[in-house]
Each structure stands twice: as C-alpha cells, then as structure tokens.
C-alpha cells in the first residue's frame, strides 16, 4: 500500500482581518495575520507535506482593505503564500475589472469553475489546478455562491451557473475532463454556505471522486466536519481567530482518504509566535490609514452592537434611523450585511466608522402599495432566510413587523402605530445594491418598485449622509424595541 500523510490547513471569510486583538478579560492575543502566519510557519516546519487553502472572501471588512481596495490584502496574502484560493462574493465588491487586476497581482492560483463570460462561454478564472506534492497529484476546483450574480447583476457580460444543480454539473465537468488515474485526491473549494455544501455533496456522483468540500460564506463553526455521500465537508468560521486543520492519510492505489483527523485550531499567542516581519509589513498599511482616519466622528452614550445580522440590533437601529431621517421615508431597509463589525463605540472615529460601514452605495426612495410592503416583509422575515446565507435587513424606528414562524405568515405590520393598509401608498428607501437585486432579495421586481411614481435619489453616498448625521447627533443610543419580531 502506497500511502502518504498530508496536512491541509484552511481558512475562509477572512474579510481583511489583519490585526491581532487582546482577548476580553485577559492579556492574551488572538487572531490577526501575523499570528496566523506564525502558526502556518510552525506547521510548515513540523509537517512534511502541508497545503494551505482559502475558500473565498479574503477582502472587504477592514479599513485597511477598503482603503486600498483589496490591493493590501493580496500583497499580504502573497506573504502568507496559500497554495490555492477560490473566489468569494466579496472579491467582486470592487468591481470586475479590479478583481481581474487583483488576480494578476496574486502569486497563488485562484480557481473558479462557474463564473463565465456569457457571450463566449468562456470561464473567467482557471477552473482547476493540480498541486503535485510528494509524488501525489491533488486536484482543486472552485464554486462560487449565487451572490456573485447579485454583485454582477448590472454587468450583462458576466454570468454564472448559480443553482446547486448547476454547480454540481460544473464540478462534474471538471472531474470528467481532468481527473485521470494520476489524481490521488479531489477537493472542491466552495463559497456557497455550509447547508448548501451539504446539499451539493449529495448531488455529486461517486464516479467523480470528490473527496472533500472545504467551504465558506455562512461563517459556520463546526465541532467536526460532516460526511455526506462519502465526502468530508468542512468550514472554519470567519476571520483569523481560528483555522481548520485536516491531517489525512491518502492511499495512492485507491485514490482515497483512508484516515483523517480534523481540528479547529484557535489562533493565539499560546499556539504560535507572531510573524514579526509580516507585522512590520502590515504596519506600513496601518500607519498610513491611522494617520488619515483617527479623527472623531461622534460619541455614543454607550457601545452599540450588531452580533447577528438575522435579528434587530442596536447598531442596525441607529444606522437605519439616521438614513431614514435624511430620506424622510416611511420604511428604510438597510442591509444587515453592510454593517461589518459586531460592535461600535462609544467613541466613533472616522476609521472605525469606515471599517464598520465600508459600502458606499446610493439610497433611492420608491413608492409602493401597502400590499407590496407586506409582501416584502413576508419574504425577508421568513425562517428560510435566517440561515446565515439569506439577505436580512435593519429597519427604522416606527416600523414594527411581527412574523409567525409556525404559520409562515406576517402577523402584523405597523408604521407609526398604524396598521399598513393594502391600498395605501407608502415610501420605501433602498440601497442601490438591493434595488438591483430586488426580485431575489425582496420578492418584488424593479418594474413594481417604479410603477406608481418615479423614484427619487436620496443620495449617491449612504456612507456620507450616515457620517454627517452622526456628527450632528452626539450622545445617541438605541435599544432593541421590537422592530422585527419572530414568534
């Protein structure tokens, strides 16, 4: 029997999480890329055959990343030197041309099998890569979440096969075409969410020989990987506070994993020493950003929180109230995912606000009927949308929506204490991204949103009006007051 041991380290949804933090209640450092690099260096020194992979969303989520539009992230990733990476939805946030620029900067392969230039039927990225290590050949392919379609909805040249069935077919196409007898291990790097990974694993034909799915997008923390259809399915949460680690034994004769062990390794200064050289490199970006963004914007009367995007949060409430105040709207829907930190304040600097709300999108006000408003809330509050993969929202004061999970119905929807009337007209304000993707995210078409009256642009920059409102409203706070309630 010809076998070989491999160590596969995997990260996902790092979101520009460059800097270590001091653990609350103690002096221990946790997370950050210099500590992560220290652990990678340690494992690479201890183990003979190590592969490090990233399952999407390296960018977006920190001020350093936003300031340099991902260029800083790719330069730092070049230092970490992953063996292979796949795209996440946030790799598209700076636009398709910029993604192609970042891909050229990368000193590591970026694989994706289902992002296409539609007119020509050509894939945008390399669909697979074969890594040769210790005489074994390991094939990697990549699949992206359908959120890419959201990000590219205004770009008619680019498309993707977005359903799980389509994703399965694309993986099959790669395996059928490129998996020969010399391929000892086949790994799919995905960015579709853990629940979708499990469904995908069920669809893959055993003849394709996929051994692992290493995923991202849903930020799932696991005790142990799932095994579905004889395929190991894993994910490693979010950020750089932890990393997934497989130690596997691969049989060259059967091209299969015959032993495996998986751990979710906490990244802290007990497990590794910070990589001093990488810390210096990151500091070159950090120092420039700090100098530019240290100015004070406002001070809350207490710290505000955004721990869970599926529910009403105090930070979400103040952001929605600020934008609704400027928009003079009955309802505003602020994408929960556009708030990128779990807490903010009480002191709010320009830098911390930028890191918290990095998306500089428009706000536009529409006129719709009460019946349409109820239809939207029924769609966004349904239980199936609250799965770490759905599109959830924060709403403004005065709006109270009650949804019954058992009956799958909107029990009530009130604005300023008055029940929404099916036949009356109301104003609804949306970020540009959510208008562009209104049908999948809100269950209402662009034509329906614009049918009653021409929409009005409130601002071309939601960030700018948020910053100005906060400057003019010091010592604010918010509580959870039942804007979105599930029973």
Summarize the structure.
The chain has 487 residues and is an alpha/beta fold. It has 15 helices and 30 strands. A hairpin with a 4-residue loop joins strand 25 and strand 26 (409-415).
Describe the overall structure.
With 487 residues, this protein is of the alpha/beta class. It is built from 15 helices and 30 strands. The strands form 8 sheets. It has a 6-stranded mixed β-sheet, with helices on one face. A 6-stranded mixed β-sheet has the order 9-10-12-13-15-14, covered by helices on one side. Helix 6 crosses helix 7 (194-203) and helix 9 (314-327) packs across helix 15. The longest helix has 18 residues, at 276-293. The mean pLDDT is 91.
User: Which strands sit side by side, in order, in the main sheet?
Assistant: 6-5-4-1-16-17
The percent range for strand residues is 25-35%
- CATH topology of the largest domain: the name is Purple Acid Phosphatase, chain A, domain 2
Distance between the termini: 58 Å
Largest sheet: 6 strands, mixed
Taking all residues together, what is the mean pLDDT?
91
Q: Which regions are unreliable across 5 or more consecutive residues at pLDDT < 50? A: none
Shape: globular
Percent helix: 25-40%
Which structural category do the helix and sheet elements fall into?
A: alpha/beta
What's the domain count? 2
Radius of gyration: 23 Å
Compute the number of strand runs.
30
CATH superfamily of the largest domain: Metallo-dependent phosphatases
The CATH class label of the largest domain is: Alpha Beta
The CATH architecture of the largest domain? 4-Layer Sandwich
Number of helices: 15
By oligomeric state, this entry counts as: single chain
